[in-house]
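Worked example 3. Consider a protein that binds PMT.
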Amino acid sequence: MNYLQNKKILLGITGGIAAYKAADLVRKLKEVNADVRVVMTAGAMAFITPLTLQALSGNPVATSLLDTDAEAAMGHIELAKWADVVLIAPASANTLACLANGLAGDLLSTLYLATPAPVAVCPAMNQQMWAAKPTQRNIQTLIKDDVSIFGPGLGAQACGDIGAGRMLEPLEIVAHLQSLLAPKPLLNKKIVITAGPTQESIDPVRYISNHSSGKMGYALAQAAQQLGADVHLISGPCALTAPHAVHTTTVTSADEMLATTLENIDNADVFIGCAAVADYKPQTVAAQKIKKTAQSEMSIALTRNQDILATVANLPNKPFTVGFAAETQDIEHYALDKLQRKNLDMIAANNVAIAGQGFGAEQNALMVYTPNSQHELALNDKTRLATDLIQLIAEQINQHNN
Ligand code: PMT
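Given these inputs, the predicted complex is written out as structure tokens:
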């Protein structure tokens, strides 16, 4: 879900080598249809020109508190009120110190005091400067003042040092902003989600699995996090990057997924079983690679995996439990059967026989059933569909609690 659509972002750029990344950040913000106005400190202009930022943002760049022309066009108080959010990236140690102490010696620090909008900073500095006690004191003050701190990241720095102090990458900053601006109906809710396939070993080199890519489950995890939940994603093997600000554990087999789920389900408000868990595993796993024989056929004896979803749904203090049903026919009949048989609160059924949706696809369509309602979530990108499903879940659990 794009919470930055038409949002007014006041981007403050301060002096530091990471200022060059601000140009890409403006592009990324424009790509999600945000309206961006840039304010630069004198230090920022030593690294990148206002003309670049003006061209990319499509708006004039403000650089001085005492510029009569700029004040006549949009005064600094007007600019402070215009913003839906103030983002400072990169935020130098000096700027953090000014903000923490309420100094208003330049345009950006004055805007900080004058804005009613939420403020986020992306610190960027040498690792020793970041670790320094005054910087850390200033950060604690800013946190107490409700400023969101995005990063810094770890890694090699322009000065040759290695450590914490790098400005986050533009896409990471956009993801943080999306989370900041999303409504939070799931604040203080703990959600455990399984995603992806499981792999059931036959021998050291072979396994049984399926075509789940994890996209649907990862999208659900990100959507739940954006809506305020504390999310633990338990993922089978897949090639996706862990969603932003989601605690992610990777597992391989159904047994591991079950054990990790049970270790983490205490106090969960919601459990969503989106993983395509293998129903069966080989009865025994060969210690060595199985060799071909002269026979043209072979068979592997299988045994049932324990049902993770049904196990959670039958716990004494069960969370609101949501299953998925991957069906190829009689969708409603099979989904309702699973809802009842596994003691679920909700089931999201998808028709995995239709090309372009379900396993591995970018899109999906869901029929969602509860014991007394049904909702159609029409074909859409999995990210959008995930937000719609998480919103439905939020409505249901808030109804339960009222
Ligand atoms: O990962 P993607 O490529 O994005 O694809 C998404 C998806 C098609 C995998 C997803 O939308 C989906 O349908 N997930 C459930 C797949 C599945 O295993 O469905 P099922 O009908 O076989 O299982 C029913 C439910 O029982 C599921 O919630 C499943 O997680 C759960 N289950 C099944 C077996 C088992 N041993 N333990 C379980 O928890």
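Take a moment to read the result before moving on. The radius of gyration is 25 Å. The mean pLDDT is 95.
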